[in-house]
Amino acid sequence: MNTLQIADLRVVLPGTERPVLDGVDLTVASGETVALVGESGCGKTLTSRAALGMVPPRAEATGTVLVDGRDMLTLGARSLRRVRATTTAMIFQDPRAAINPVRRIGDFLTEGLRLTGAWDKTRARERALTLLDAVGLKSTVLRQYPHELSGGMLQRVMIAAALMADPVLLLADEPTTALDVTTQAEIIALLGELQQRFGTAMLFVTHDLDLAAVIADRVAVMYAGRIVETGPAEEVFAAPKHPYTAALLAASPRLDAPEPRLTVIPGRVPGLHTAISGCPFATRCGHADERCATERPQSTAVPGRAEAEVACWNSESLIPQGGAAHG
Ligand SMILES: Nc1ncnc2c1ncn2[C@@H]1O[C@H](COP(=O)(O)OP(=O)(O)OP(=O)(O)O)[C@@H](O)[C@H]1O
């Protein structure tokens, strides 16, 4: 069974012309890491928040969001709180914004578990010590305050906190963007190692394709609220099947290329006040024809590639085998 199974998720915000999430299908299996990539404003964060049953106020949400078999969109408030506290965890971009600055790290780590009522103080503290050790921090950190720790140490604390209740699903939203490159590499390695060790499913939101290539088993490429391509990360990045994926890869800076240069994808992601009748990428796509402008392409299996789908009318004829090598 998939730990996270999102099916046909549609979210409509009041006063807009197109759904902000438009028929999203996404699965993450136990022990698997799926990277959700795409330009800013495509709906990545909304998708990962929906996995916690969080949708913007006054938004209309349809479809199903199953976490460990329970639909987060229909659970009552109490059950939702319990599922959030015991089966899911989220790691955010900026650890300082997500932690109470006047509470000691020890209290921060243990209070979530103690609130569930199932853990007493001693047991919660033991669990905190085990996890601090797992993330490479000393036990003395328990008595420290957030301002006494560096950004990298604090993100390690956040990872420890996320794993306290032994969640089945970890949602990481740009968890290393606020860190320098060395610390970023350490945190990514740590996340990967712990996720394997604890067998957690992880949805990793990022706009950094190189990072996605390093951490993910599978990748889902999102554009204007839709998943336009999915598949094994290595294969998708080596040979993209959707013109948008190919354009994203071309626009990703490659310092090791013979002639490093930055390609820009012309145009912008259509705003929420623009109705879309066909493919949302059609207006920016060099391969679009009349059909792309009027008929919505459905996701279809990519021939010869396991667990891979693409939503493009012209994928087979336009994207050459071998595609744009990257990474
Ligand atoms: N609470 C909200 N109320 C209204 N609109 C929202 C809300 N949250 C997000 N949006 C809009 O939904 C769209 C998708 O936002 P989302 O944050 O999911 O994108 P993203 O792909 O994660 O972008 P980024 O990489 O910049 O974080 C954007 O147009 C955003 O302005």
Give the strand order, joined by hyphens, for the main sheet.
6-7-8-3-9-10-12-11
Report Rg.
21 Å
Note poorly predicted spans: 321-327
Q: Any guess at the CATH architecture?
A: 3-Layer(aba) Sandwich
Q: What proportion of the residues is helical, as a percent range? A: 25-40%
Mean pLDDT: 89
Query: Helical element count?
Result: 11
Assigned CATH superfamily: P-loop containing nucleotide triphosphate hydrolases
Report strand %: 15-25%
The helix/strand class is alpha/beta
The first-level CATH class name: Alpha Beta
Report how far apart the termini are: 31 Å
Number of domains: 1
Q: Which distinct ligands sit in these coordinates?
A: adenosine-5'-triphosphate
Following the backbone from N to C, one meets helices and strands in this order, namely EEEHEEHEHHHEHEHEEHHHEEH
**Overall geometric form:** globular
